[in-house]
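Collaborator request, handled under Task 6.
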Amino acid sequence: MKSTLASRIIIILTLLAAGSIWLYAQHPSTLPSLAPVQKSVAPQSADSRQSAAARPNTKAPSPNATTPTVGTPTATPATIVVNTPMTVTVTVQITDTTLISGSVNLLRVGATGTQATILGVMHDDGKNGDGTAGDHIYTLQVPFNEPSAGQIQIQVSAAFQGQLKRIQSQSVSVLIYNQFTSTSTTTPFTLSYPPLWVISASPYPNQEYLFPSSSQPNQDNEYAADIIVDAIPNPGHLDLSSYYSNKADVNYYSNSDTAITFVTRSGFPAVKFINVSGMIPTEITSVNTGSVIVEITDVGEQHSDDGILAAVADSVR
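Structure tokens returned to the collaborator:
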């Protein structure tokens, strides 16, 4: 009797165990599960969350992007005179379409390690010295009155879309010339000459020597000067053609390869005689102020191409 009861209990427990196993197989999701482990993320600042689209002008250019360029500025005139108020017109060409309007600055470059000075904003509106509006040539007219000879370094700076920094041009120089005034009562005239040059009286009347300070005259090698200036009285106010045809010792019109007529910056008639006959190649520019004819002789034609002879002649008055 007891063994029969025990056998029934074992059978019941076996059936219950089998049922539990069947239920687990049918519904495994009913068992408790572990929640997935999440990595902690540090909070971001508002600045780091700012999208690139919100900062278009600070986005670094792509490696294949072309960097905008600013042309080399041009100054007219390229020389000014010490202690003389003069206006210089500066132009520069910028064709890049990403140029930011109103950002083209003309700078006066200071000494090494010093801050450049903004002389003004250049414009392309056809006004105040600018030739044609919208031609991509930007202009600024700048007044100067410099107390000492030397040079002024100028440069152009402009801003472009997508560029972190402003783009700068090459720098160019405006030379500040010295000034000489003759003390002669019969041949009064004034001219200018380059910085770091010297002017001195020659042994001959109404004649001056012009030369760089590093090239002193030396009679042993027959070097007198780079440029010789002769002042000739012209009481009859003859024109240059009449003077050289009738009064001068040598007629440069017939003793040179070429005679080029022009008008100086001061409005005086002038003639440039190229390859004047002589022992060495010589170029002579004659300027007629009315009462005085000023002959500027470039001995050996050393300065016909560097602009010095032209600048000296152009300054005569």
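The cover message to the collaborator said: "Residues 94 and 136 are 5 Å apart (CA to CA). Confidence is low (pLDDT under 50) at residues 29-35, 39-58. Please let us know whether this matches your experimental observations."
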